[in-house]
Amino acid sequence: MNPIKTVAVLTSGGDAPGMNAAVRAVVRTGIYNGLKMLGINKGYEGLLNGDIEEMNLRSVGDIIQRGGTILQTARSNEFNTKAGLEKAVSMAKVFGIDALVVIGGDGSFRGAKDLSELGMNVIGIPGTIDNDISCTDYTLGYDTAMNTVLDAIDKIRDTSYSHERCSVLEVMGRKAGWIAINCGIAGGAEAIILPEKEFDIDKDIIMPIVEGRNRGKKHYLVIVAEGVGGAVEIAEYIEAKTEITTRATILGYIQRGGTPTITDRVMGSRFGACAIKCLLEGRKNRIVAIRDNKLVDIDIIEALSMKKTIDNELITLSKILAL
Ligand code: F6P
Predict the structure, then answer these.
(1) pLDDT on residue 2
(2) Which residues 6+ apart lie within 8 Å of 234 measured at CB?
(3) Whether the CB of 174 sits within 6 Å of ligand 1
């Protein structure tokens, strides 16, 4: 007999397209397997406030195509205190929660790990547009965000071409450059500036632009990751050094919203089902992940200690293709 009867799900941290697909899969797979399913609104804040309701098959109808998260999300200061954690555990007891599924990023998983140390059974599902969770090759929302960025690059390129300008585009990613490197390659950027690699503005930005101009290029694209920042200052520097009219665009929150792509819907569905499978098979305190195209689950402490870095091969490729 599996001791788990009631499972709650919450979304935490920044919203990401595909979170709804994961909520839907958690709820429906849970009910299919005879579990009672609860939805916690507004992340850990909702757990502290008892903002919790039972979910049925229909509660998650018509959501797979929606961006954001129907459960809403929040960043809770109270939860990050010892008293907050203890309150969260006692609230979980009040609602009879045997296991908690947390859909979010690294910060949310650290909160989940703290709860596990107080005896709760937690399962994490990677959800962030930044793709910066080390234990998994993919995080929900990353594909949708990259497609949004690429659409913006293509539009900006039209103007850059028409006016023979340089465009500097700052993209999200927190301290990671995953969105920047792949969108830079896909959008044909002359230079991609990543937080993972030190850069020299003259060597890494001005030189490729000037050399490109000498080879006949007439417009230019520079992608700057949010973790480096300073797109406006970089644009001013380029214009001063090269006399090419240069404009900065900071894409911001449009990268977080929008209809999830097929990848995010399918990955959300697979991650959600995998979370319930872990619980049914008696595995505790895990993060579900995809590695080398296989769904796996990893102990939460081990998962949080892992590191992943952007492959040098991608960086080299981006430079060759910018010729
Ligand atoms: O983690 C997703 C993300 O959009 C990051 O790319 C960005 O650094 C951060 O969230 C912004 O967070 P907030 O919306 O809380 O300001």
Answers:
(1) 72
(2) 168, 193, 201, 205, 222, 224, 248
(3) yes
